[in-house]
Amino acid sequence: MPLPGASRPERRSPPGFFARLALSPRLHALAERIPGLRGHARSEGRALFEMIAGFVRSQALLAVVELRLLPILAESSASTAQLSTRTSVPEDRLAILLQAAAALKLVERRRGLWRLAPRGAAFLTVPGLEAMVRHHPVLYRDLNDPVAFFRGETQPELAGFWPYVFGPLAETDAGLAQRYSSLMADSQALVAEDTLRLVSLSDARRLMDVGGGTGTFLRAVARKCPELDLALFDLPHVVAAAPRFSPRLAVQPGDFRQDPIPAGADIITLVRILYDHPDTTVLSLLSAIHDALPQGGRLVISEPMSGGARPDADTDIYFAIYTLAMCSGRTRSPAELRDMLVKSGFSTISAPRTRRPFVTSVIEVSKA
Ligand SMILES: C[S@@+](CC[C@H](N)C(=O)[O-])C[C@H]1O[C@@H](n2cnc3c(N)ncnc32)[C@H](O)[C@@H]1O
User: Fold this and answer.
1) Residue 291 CB–ligand 1 contact under 6 Å
2) Less Cβ crowding at N or C end of the chain, within 10 Å?
3) Does ligand 1 lie within 6 Å of residue 273's CB atom?
4) In the chain, where are the structural domains located?
């Protein structure tokens, strides 16, 4: 029996059965000769290569976006020489980028001319994608030394980025604030669409969106439920820029880290809010929302969530590492959120629902 204070031997267990098999080079050679296993081995090989080379894809995409190749091709098809003139990229180097873009299925080549492919057209059409790609160099720089990053030895630029965009400093750089508020508003379209398909508002009377920015989500709510009274709660300098788009909209400036959440709504939404904040802030915000809701009132949490016990390739890589770089919040699993909701007084908590985990997942709770 270990003495008090003595360090316990670490529990170690060997890799699982399939991992042990995969560690055997002989099995790899054998797998190539057995039809059923051959397909599996090759798709695993491809998955490994995609993982290794993923950063080059993202940077090729960034070049395509920054050079505005897709909007140019949306106007009309063009030769490599014509595109070289428009982008000031030497023809031989641009040919390599265009070939990569074709491999990404963003563009395609017909009779010597490049044209927009359906995926490239979708990229241009889905709101927020272009702005999202264009803000990624910040995260890319933060991950330049990933070991130091995970050891916590770096000072990520992203940690100052969003506070700068939304914080008081933004008042001195309106252009930057506008650009990234637009990114939030643009990317909100998909989040709102999925959230409103997953949540019924038929019995609601007044909905308050806490941290609702300039009201993009509420505008989507108003389109779906024109009879609903709406309230927008966000920091004073953020709501100052919110268009008063409906006589049913009440704007309620406040700071949820120090002000109470105003009462009066029977449904409160938190859309892409909790993952920006540490556990202490989240717990006090959830308790304040519990206080503000009437009996039977509902809280809807909508944001990308970790897969928890079943890791999710989109949220547990992109969102979890993004929020780690922000140094303020974290991407939580539904089980973690459920624990925090219980601690905040909520008891009836729905199972998480999602249409596309990389867009958002929704948890609904009601006050008993
Ligand atoms: C990630 S944005 C999400 C905006 C919007 N809900 C959406 O999904 O597009 C976070 C929002 O929370 C607001 N916010 C951050 N801290 C806040 C606080 N202490 N009190 C009120 N709002 C806050 C920000 O101003 C910003 O509008």
Assistant:
1) no
2) N
3) yes
4) 30-125, 146-366
